[in-house]
Amino acid sequence: MAIESEVLVIGGGLGGLTSALAAARDGADVRLVSYKQSTLRQASGLVDVLGYTPDGDGPLTDPYEAIPSLPAEHPYRKVGVGTVRDAMALFDDAVPTYEGEHTDTNALLPTHGGSIKPTARYPAGASAGLASDTRDTLLVGIEEMVDFDAPHVAAHLDATGVPFDVRGETIRFPGDLRADAKVTRYAKLLDTNSEVAVRGRMVPAREALAQRVNPLLEGEERVGFPAILGDDSPAAIRDALGDHLGVDVFEVPMGPPSLPGLRLEDALFAALDEAGVSIETGNPVVDFEGEDRIERVFIEKNGAKIPNSADQYVLATGGFVGKGVESDREGVYEPVFDCHVPHAADRYDWFEGELFGDHEFARYGVATDDDLRPLDASEQSEFENLRAAGSVLGGYDFAAEKSGSGVSIATGYAAGQRAAQEAR
Fold first, then answer.
1. What CA–CA distance (Å, rounded) separates 170 from 160?
2. What is the spatial distance between Cα 63 and Cα 111, in angstroms, rounded to a whole number?
3. Average pLDDT over the chain, rounded to whole?
4. By the 8 A CB rule, do 186 and 178 touch?
5. How far apart are CA 165 and CA 179, in angstroms?
6. Cα angle 264-244-259, degrees, rounded to a multiple of 5
7. What is the largest CA-CA distance in the chain?
8. What angle is formed at CA 371 by the lines to CA 348 and CA 81, rounded to 5 degrees?
9. What is the structure's pLDDT at 322?
10. Concatenated DSSP letters for 140-196?
11. For residue 296, what are the CA distances in angstroms to 288, 289, 303, 323?
């Protein structure tokens, strides 16, 4: 007997989580299934809407203002500016620890590579580090963390022309973590504020870290650390360090594994729990039944194929990185429902005679109508009760545009809400 729900979301990334949350908050009985862990833990934790145009113009000041000028096949054009705004409002409500909701203007944040990134939402822990802030800055790196070379980052920021003086220093983290120098290990030590040995005496970790940094200050008004300042209580850790140092403390977003990404994942799963969404992870969708309409999907679990049925389905399995879109010598394809992915010889016709220059491959993905229903090669809906959301979609280059999170949130919101409305 099939496991039943009104809306079944396939995929546990940002698009899938947003779809499930939107559908549940609209009153639907929602089930989310995901094969792998969420890719959010590999992300920086920043939430971009649109940083650059497809032509490379930017950084954009107002991403919403630029959306109507995007190509017609872009996911933002399909859902519309109003839906993008509504989707971001849902995000703001679900993740109240983020900043940026008070303005349409992109914020400019330094990255762990020393570049400046335009973003629409950012963790509260990064707010004192905005590149538009004119206060002088000290960046502190950790010897064992080779991914954050503070002097190197400072030099790159200075070269971009930021409106403040910036220096970088490197310290050894208090307590001997060289044998287990993981981001989560630093975070745990600061969360628990466990005592560490400093010159023969035991000192709480937060105080010990501040003692290492304090002699390095040369009048700077803010200090930036790599994003290691706790998982359970980052705000308390920043406040404690700030009190010890007499400055504002912020985190610089890092690459994977990402604590801000993990925190964001935790916040969204908590919102899903509160909304009553049923969640199953670790088992792939391997088959389905249905022609014009999907009747059921099958999840492989311990060698058995478990049927799951719903009135409406949302495909949010990710792009090439998440294996929601795959390729071989024959072409590019979507592996769950075999949805059509325009590519190679037919891409010219699909995108109104316009090729995409150097970034064609990055734009490959499932093509949909304006209701996010996947289209077949003849531009007809493949399944009347299926919608696609997130990076499985084609028509945009999230890396070049800095639009990945926003597209996932906006299309996830639209797909989930519309699925819930049709399931009634």
1. 21
2. 20
3. 91
4. no
5. 35
6. 15
7. 75
8. 90
9. 79
10. EEETT-TT--HHHHHHHHHHHT-SS-EEEEEEPPSS--GGG--HHHHHHHHHHT-EE
11. 6, 5, 18, 21
Kindly report, residue by residue over 131-154, the tens digit of the pLDDT. 999 999 999 999 988 889 999 999
What residue ranges in 72-146 does DSSP mark as E strands? Answer: 98-99, 107-110, 116-119, 122-123, 137-142
Give the residue among 417, 371, 410, 377 at the shortest CA–CA distance from 391.
Answer: 410
Count of CB atoms within 10 A of residue 85's CB? 14
Q: Judge whether 78 and 366 are in contact, CB under 8 Å.
A: no
Amino acid letter at 358? D
Amino acid letter at 149?
A: D
User: What is the pTM (predicted TM-score) of this model?
Assistant: 0.93
Paired tokens of 283: 């088992």
- For helices 259-275 and 14-25, what crossing angle results, to 10°? 20
pLDDT of amino acid 59: 95
Regions of the chain short of the pLDDT cut 50? 179, 344-359
Helix H or strand E encompassing 407: helix 404-423
Strands 195-198 and 201-204 turn out to be antiparallel
What is the C-alpha to C-alpha distance for residues 179 and 376, in angstroms, rounded to an integer?
A: 53
- Residue located via tokens 């010159």: 199
Burial class, 245, CB count within 10 angstroms (exposed 0-12 / middle 13-18 / buried 19+): buried
Contacts for 324 with CB less than 8 Å, ≥ 6 apart: 11, 315, 316, 317, 318, 334, 335, 336, 390, 391, 392
> Residue 21's closest CA among 267, 272, 391?
272
CB atoms within 10 A of CB 93: 12
Contacts of 130 (CB under 8 A, 6+ apart): 107, 108, 109
**Residue 134 phi, psi dihedral angles, 5° rounding:** -90, 0
Place of tokens 């466990």: 194
CB neighbours of residue 187 within 10 Å: 22
